[in-house]
Each structure stands twice: as C-alpha cells, then as structure tokens.
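pls ignore typos typing on phone
magnesium ion + seq
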Amino acid sequence: MGGGAILRYSLHRLAILLVVVFFLFPIFWIALMSLQTNESILRIPPSMVFTPIFDNYQALITGKLITQAGSLDLPFMKNLFNSFFLSAASVAVALILGVPAAYAFARFKFRLGENIAFTLLSFRFAPPLLVLLPLSLIYQTIGLDNSYVGLIWVYQLICLPLILWVVRSYFEDISPEIEHAYRIAGHNWGQSFLRIAIPLARPGIAAAGLLAFIFAWNNFVFALILASADKQPVTVGALAFVTASGIQYGQIAAAIILSILPTLLLALYAQRYLVEGLSLGAVKG
Amino acid sequence: MTDTVLQLANVNKYFGGSKAPMLHAVRDVSLDIKSGEIIALLGSSGCGKTTTLRMIAGFEQVSSGRIDLGGRAIHDQPPGKRGVAMAFEGYSLYPPLTVRENIGFALKSSRLVKSQQQQQIDDIAHLLEIQAIMGRYPSSISAGQQQRVSLGRALIRRAAVTLLDEPMGQLEPQLRAVLRGRLKKYLREHGMTTVLVTHDQTEANALADRIAVMEGGVIHQFASPAELKHRPATRFVAGFIGEPPMTLFNAEFAPTHSAPGQFAASQGQTGRAGGNGCDIILTDSEKKIRFAATGLSDAVTQRLLALGTATIGIRPHDVRLSQVPGPGPGSEQGENSAAEFPLTAAITANQWLGDQTHLALSLDGLPLVAVVHRPFHQAVGARISLSLAADKLHIFDLATERAVLHHGVWVS
Ligand SMILES: Nc1ncnc2c1ncn2[C@@H]1O[C@H](COP(=O)(O)OP(=O)(O)OP(=O)(O)O)[C@@H](O)[C@H]1O
Ligand SMILES: [Mg+2]
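k done
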C-alpha cells in the first residue's frame, strides 16, 4: 500500500467516524442523562462530569416514581410489554398475510392485481388521523376499542403494505424457473412456495419484518386514540413522565434507552439474515 | 419401440388472453413423438420453441388443442404430475445447494440406495465434464458450467419425456461437439424420449432423429435431417436449412420457342428452338436472365409451364462452376462452353474454410451462393461461367410457398 492509499484509507475512516458521531451523539447524550438526577441534567452550563446513579432505571423497573410531590405509579414495564406484544403480534399477522400475498402479486398476473397492490401501498401515505376518528367510532360500536385484537388490526395499516411491497420485490428477483425446476421434479406449487421461494426470499422477509417491527414499535397516534392505560405502548406511556411536579428528564432518558433496546437487539439478530441478502446475487436475474 | 409416446394435437397458444389475442405464439402445432426418439425444435429466436416446451412441461396453459403422454391427456395436469424432466434456458439451479446436491436432488425421492445414487451422479458428472466443480455452489461457477449442471439435473431423472431448452448454448464449439456425442449415447442407452430446442442446425442434425422446423409459431416441416435437406417442404425451410442455405430466386417459365428478344435476356442461352422444352427466366434482376431448363421430363416441363411463375432454389453445392475463367462483359464465348455453362457471374466474396470454398456471386446483381470442395483461386471481381441445372432445382409455389418440385420429381 502506497502513502497515497494510506492517506485515502485514513480519510475514509475519518469521514465514517464523523458521520457515526453525528448520528449517535443524541443517543449518547440521552444515555448520559439517564444516569443523572433531574438537577444535574438541568445544570447550566451542561457538563459531562457527574456521579452516575441508577435511580431512574430503578424507578422504571419497580414501577414507583418518587418525586417531591410524593410517590407515583409508573406502568412503564407494562407499557414495554405492550409495545413488544403489539409489535410482534402485528408483524406476525402481517407476515402470515403479507408473504403469500406478495408471492401472488409477484408470480401471478390477475385482474386488478396492480390496483389492489397499489391501494395497499396507499395506506402508507394516507395520514393516520384521517382514518382514526371514524375508526374509533366503529371500534366502540363493535367493541374492539381498547383491545389487543383491535390494535393489532389497525397496526396492519403500518405493517402489511411494507411487508407486501418489500417481499414482493424479493420474490420478483428470484427466477421463476428455479421454482419450475422444483415443480417439474414432482412437487406442487405450494411445496415450491414453502421449500424454494420462502427460503430464497428469507433476507427480504427478515428485512421487511424488522422494518415493520420498528414502525409498529414507534407508532404513537393509533395507540393514543384507541388504547387506554393498560394496553398502551411505551410511546404513549412516556406521556406519564410529564408530571405535576415537572418533566422527569432522567426517567424519560432511561425509558428511551430501555425502549430502544428491544429493537436494537432484534436488528442485531436479524443482521445475519440481512447480510445473507448480499449473497443472493446468484439467484437474481 | 415405435409407439407414440408424446403427442401434440393442434396446440395453440395465445398470449394476452384468447379473447383479445395480442400474440398467437404457437399455431396449430401437431407432433407425434415415438418412444425413445430424439426430436429437435429448430427455429430462429422468438419463433415459439420455448413456449411449446413450456406447454409440454405445464408452465404455460395450452389455449387450445391437446397434449398426450403415454396415451394420457396431460395438458390439464400440474407440472409435477406429468412425469417430464426439463433443462431450462436460464439454468435455474437451487442457489443454496452444491452442484452435487443440485444434481442429486431429483434422486432423493427415488427408491435407489445411496451408493447407486452416488454412482449415477458420478456418471452424469463424468459425462458432462463437471467432476471438478461438484462441491461448488451455483453462484461460484461459470455460465457454461451452470448450464451443464442444469442439463445433468434433467438427465439424471430419466423421465418419460426429457425437455432440453438450448442445453448447450453457452459452451464452446469443441466441448459442445464432445458432449453432443455423449449426450446422444446417454439418451439412446436409456431409451429416453427427448425434445430438444435449439437454433443450431449442426446440433439438431447431430442429435435429432427428426427435426421440426418452426417459424412464427408454425411448424413448417417435421422430418429427418436428410429429408429436410433434400426435400424442404416450404420456401422457409429451404432458405433456413443448410450451411449456407440454398439461394432462392423468383422465376418465370416460358416455352423455349418463344422469342428470346421478348424478354430482353441479358445473358444465357435459350433451349433449342422447335423442341417442346422450357426456359427459366430469373425475374428479380432488371435485365432478365434466361436459361434452358434441361434434364426435366416432358410431364414436369408441361406442369412448370402451366405454373408460369414460382420461387426456385438451388443448394450451393449444386451450382456447377466452369473450371476456366468466364468471359468479360460482352466478350465472345466458345459455343460448347456456353451450352454447358450458360450463365456468367461476378465473384463478390471468396472464402476458403479449410475444406471447402464459399463463393458469393452476383448474377447481374442477383446474389447467388456456391460451394466447391477445393481451393478456388479467382479473385473478387473475376467473372466465372456457371450453370443452374434444372434437375437440381427446388421449386416452390409462389402463393402457398409450398414445394412443388425437388430434383426433377414433382411433389405429389
Ligand atoms: N409470457 C409471455 N407473455 C407474452 N408473450 C410471450 C411470453 N412468452 C413468450 N412470449 C412471446 O412469444 C413468442 C415466442 O417466444 P419463445 O420464448 O417461445 O421463443 P423461442 O423460440 O424460445 O426464442 P429463443 O430462441 O429466443 O429462446 C415471442 O414473440 C415472445 O415474445
Ligand atoms: Mg427459447
């Protein structure tokens, strides 16, 4: 490696470092905040020197928030569970419905096929508030308000189009002849869907599932309107930190860190499937 | 061994729905394929070969017509139930499996014991020269290697019918020639009924018992390689088969005693006046070229005169060239030579291929191809005397484009 190459390599690394610092700094700052008291957070000027405390995490995990105004119940862990359950169940339902649908859209040309696919996509760019008011009335009438089933159903607006479109394009990239070769060897198309198409599209399904999970996890308005306290996810539950005695910055920061963790772990886990996508090159075309 | 195994009867395929047909890709195709027979679908790109194959395999619905395999209608059955094997144009190997697993995949459900399976896989690998890549994955081997693996995967099944879609298109000529021989031996040994798709005549001739020549979704002729060459059924087959293929001219037939001046013939020699012979006049050139149709029976001559006009074709090997250089334009020619070689052409290209010479000639502007089996030393631009013997001609009806005469024998 010549001098020029080393220089270019170092500059390249430096540029990446700058980008990473720029994007991760807020997270890093929040992590610091989560280890401080409200007073130390609000010091002027701000400082990175402090004695770390774990009171914020303790309060969230035990569910008891102690303030000057007294003790307050915090359903944070319940919220966290709700977030996890709602997101996971929504993605599961969306995968069960969306992957076969994506396969159908990719492989079979049928009347109005494109229109149906586009309508499903349009759910993604319709403003949620537009549907929320009528939806909450309908839900109240049929008794689906404040139920997991009702929420998971609405979450399909977020998850299903995403999975449908991402997975569809993956199926389209797999040569149909690979499946034909399998079918002509004595298998029906159901077997070829399960044994050939799905395994080959696995990176795409993992990516779409992960994205759908994150979108569902981050959703706020649907749950705000349609769920009451015991079904609320963390996004809505975080409102409880705005208390009568002020905003609990430390706990908010700790709550953010705790609620990032599941998606982060999931992303790390799904990464190996995502990377598999790079070696899918041979299948395409 | 001679009973029909695979039968296509009046098979049609429309793309874009049969109500508003956008493309009639396969037209009324009927084929009878005998047990153990190897047939080829030969035609240029886009003529419907793959579509026909995919209908036999079951990946394309027939729009009308029927397909029988072993006396059983299969055109409504799913591909997996038809009992056919296919090597696809696009190879389509299973990416997560090694080459060995790809080939062995079809044997999994067979009742063979492990060692027999391994033996068969090794035999196929040896046949196709892919022993060295058996452990590799499809993404890491070349297109030609993938194609051979794909071929192996189809061959190993020894199915009732094996469909091969351009199985050797990616291979270099030497390897192709070697594999052709081995493939034919393998197919024969196991009595495998095979439909081969190709646009390579050499391949079709070498492998197939019979060849179906396709154009625009229509099968023009389904016959042995020799029959295609000696008795092409249509004008298209005549212009397609043979390397190089025959030269075709539009022509008129006129009685010999009609005045030559009437046609303003620029060259050539009419038949002896007073006989009841017939002259052939090539009409495409501005100056009409006229020469006597000799060596035909009276009956044939009369029928040609009745026909009036036709397309005539001559194989490059059948063009007779004079050994001596031809006369320059306007110069006199010996009487004997003129009778034997009445026409004069200019050489526009002269290619020695090591065992034969391909000559491109210009007959007063009409292109003509001739092949001689010796080096030919005249330079481009030189003139040469030649004859088109009437009893070597293939003659096609202008309207129907079907053959009416081959080598002086009327097609009944
Ligand atoms: N799924 C399809 N939809 C519409 N048209 C099609 C479809 N498949 C093939 N065609 C058309 O049908 C015609 C025949 O195609 P086919 O693939 O059978 O040709 P081919 O003889 O195999 O050509 P090649 O030698 O290039 O492989 C072509 O004009 C093609 O464009
Ligand atoms: Mg083809």
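Residues 76-280 of chain A form a domain with the MetI-like fold fold (CATH 1.10.3720.10). The longest helix of chain A spans residues 76-107. more later
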